[in-house]
Design goal:
- The protein is an alpha/beta fold and 254 residues long.
- The protein has ten helices and nine strands.
- Strands 3-4-5-7-6 form a five-stranded mixed sheet, with helices on one face. Strands 1-2 form a two-stranded antiparallel sheet. Strands 8-9 form a two-stranded antiparallel ribbon.
- Helix 4 packs across helix 7 and helix 8 runs antiparallel to helix 9.
- It is globular, with a radius of gyration of 19 Å.
Length: 254
């Protein structure tokens, strides 16, 4: 799953200098992830001279698995890259700051802490629906419990504030236009990601985790929009358009 540039809720983390893919004299050597470090929940892999914040990541794990009510059966491999160039040289993915491989309990990221890609690994334990909800649950948990900030944020701004701003500007995308993964992916991610996070956060706060888990369990990434509408109606007992209007009401009242 492709990820787009964002600043994590734990702070405005500087983008480390990326390795050049080519030099004037030919291809430069690929810098390996030669260093490793383990905690009870992670195997960190990173380059010599680079670093990860293992203590923060372990603390976020403790909060996240409790928030999602999941048990993670093995360590997550946390591959930390110097930048997009090194990630691309080692994985072939040059156009992203991070992505997850839940089936192998692995994430790839340029950040020394990550509160998005790891959520994909944890939430995949109860299902993998269309991008609206899959990305939404990850963004809805972009918090910083280490510093006591449990408000999910996108580029440092609370998700509901983003969604309210989009609504006032007329750029908030109707949920019905984001139900299929293909429709979600063609819209500006700087709108769809915080919008999806705000909507999923609303669902969690208004209806609880169990219903969202049911939706994840019944869905798949390739579901068509009409299938998602039926799934949502079955789980929540209301059309998604009605719940969307309730979300708008909450945004207007902020």
């Amino acid at each position: 799953m492709k990820r787009y540039q964002r600043l994590l809720a734990c702070g405005l983390l500087p983008l480390l200098a990326a390795c050049g893919k080519h030099s004037a004299t030919g291809p430069s050597p690929v810098v390996p992830l030669a260093q490793t470090f383990e905690t009870s929940s992670f195997l960190f892999r990173f380059s010599t001279g680079d670093k990860v914040d293992a203590a923060w990541q372990q603390a976020f794990y403790e909060w996240a698995v409790a928030a999602l009510d999941v048990r993670v059966p093995q360590r997550v491999t946390y591959n930390k890259y110097l930048g997009r160039s090194q990630m691309g040289d080692l994985t072939g993915h040059y156009d992203t700051n991070g992505y997850a491989e839940p089936a192998t309990f692995t994430i790839h990221t340029i950040w020394s802490t990550d509160n998005h890609e790891v959520i994909h690994v944890y939430s995949a334990l109860f299902g993998s629906p269309v991008a609206l909800f899959n990305e939404g649950i990850a963004v809805a948990h972009q918090t910083d419990p280490v510093h006591g900030d449990l408000k999910p944020r996108w580029n440092g701004v609370e998700l509901h504030d983003w969604a309210k701003r989009f609504k006032q500007q007329g750029t908030l995308v109707p949920i019905d236009g984001l139900l299929s993964t293909s429709d979600f992916r063609v819209v500006n991610p700087d709108v769809t990601y915080p919008e999806a996070g705000s909507f999923v956060r609303f669902l969690l706060d208004a209806y609880g985790l169990d219903r969202l888990k049911q939706l994840f369990q019944t869905g798949s990434p390739s579901d068509a929009a009409d299938v998602v509408r039926r799934q949502f109606l079955t789980v929540y007992g209301r059309p998604i358009a009605d719940v969307e209007r309730d979300w708008w009401t909450m945004l207007d009242a902020r």
